[in-house]
């Protein structure tokens, strides 16, 4: 199993524990705010496998997240998983396992913005093929309902990486994440397949560069991981890496919350001065 230190930390984690200073928070706001981590990516990119790894490491549970086989039209459920807050009546953070798409178009953008803004939350149905009412700007939303950090999953063996198809589809959403000051971590999955194919260091470097073009994340927040499968041995080092990713995401989320609180306060001052 993964190292007990980070595992224990995540089990007991409460929002605000890392940054521990939110000077522009409204009265009582942090008591009602729980970090919300959005998992985005195309169908088959490994989002649900990642959730299942976290479930296994932190709660000893096996494969509760639904592994999706299709991103077709229809009714889908936004799955929400609560972690942390051990010994309290409030979870420390949520993972939102969003349903993947086969391609990223206007409908996907609209759905993802609705999730980012908190218009679609865990357990709610999303009817694909029908528009969702949401804000394009993300303004005037409750910070406690928004997604605070995004893990963007990219399948390392997907040929669309090299062709540039991903980049053109992702440009709009990357811009929206930047406008909202929402940090993105890039998770390149199926690393075991890359290793079996004899992927060289240079090829891995190229894959990471191509993936970061899509997501806009920093170099030190780009990760190669192996997908967890119940019937296969999963190295403890891989478990440790997944938990490290979660802690990095929580840190980024807390800074996003603080930044958006400060931005909100400055905006209010500007409005009063006019």
Automatic annotation (TrEMBL):
Residues forming coiled coils: none
Gene3D superfamilies xrefs: P-loop containing nucleotide triphosphate hydrolases
Membrane-crossing residue ranges in chain numbering: none
Protein name per its UniProtKB record: Hypp3686 protein
Organism: Branchiostoma lanceolatum
Gene: Hypp3686
């Amino acid at each position: 199993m993964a190292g007990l230190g980070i595992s224990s930390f995540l089990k007991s984690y409460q929002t605000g524990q890392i940054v521990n200073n939110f000077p522009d928070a409204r009265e009582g706001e942090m008591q009602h705010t729980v970090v919300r981590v959005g998992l985005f990516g195309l169908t088959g990119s490994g989002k649900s496998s990642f959730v299942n790894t976290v479930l296994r490491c932190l709660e000893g549970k096996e494969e509760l997240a639904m592994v999706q086989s299709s991103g077709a039209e229809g009714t889908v459920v936004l799955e929400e998983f609560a972690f942390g807050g051990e010994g309290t009546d409030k979870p420390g953070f949520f993972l939102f396992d969003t349903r993947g798409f086969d391609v990223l178009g206007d409908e996907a953008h609209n759905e993802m913005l609705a999730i980012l803004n908190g218009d679609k939350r865990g357990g709610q149905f999303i009817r694909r093929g029908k528009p969702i009412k949401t804000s394009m700007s993300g303004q005037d939303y409750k910070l406690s309902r928004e997604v605070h950090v995004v893990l963007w999953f990219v399948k390392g063996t997907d040929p669309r990486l090299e062709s540039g198809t991903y980049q053109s589809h992702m440009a709009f959403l990357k811009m929206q994440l930047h406008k909202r000051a929402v940090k993105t971590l890039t998770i390149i999955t199926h690393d075991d397949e890359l290793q079996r194919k004899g992927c060289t260091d240079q090829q891995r470097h190229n894959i990471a560069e191509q993936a970061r073009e899509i997501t806009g994340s920093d170099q030190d927040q780009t990760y190669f991981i192996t997908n967890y499968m119940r019937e296969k041995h999963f190295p403890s080092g891989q478990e440790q890496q997944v938990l490290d990713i979660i802690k990095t995401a929580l840190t980024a989320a807390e800074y996003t919350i603080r930044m958006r609180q400060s931005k909100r306060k400055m905006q209010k001052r500007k409005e009063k001065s006019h």
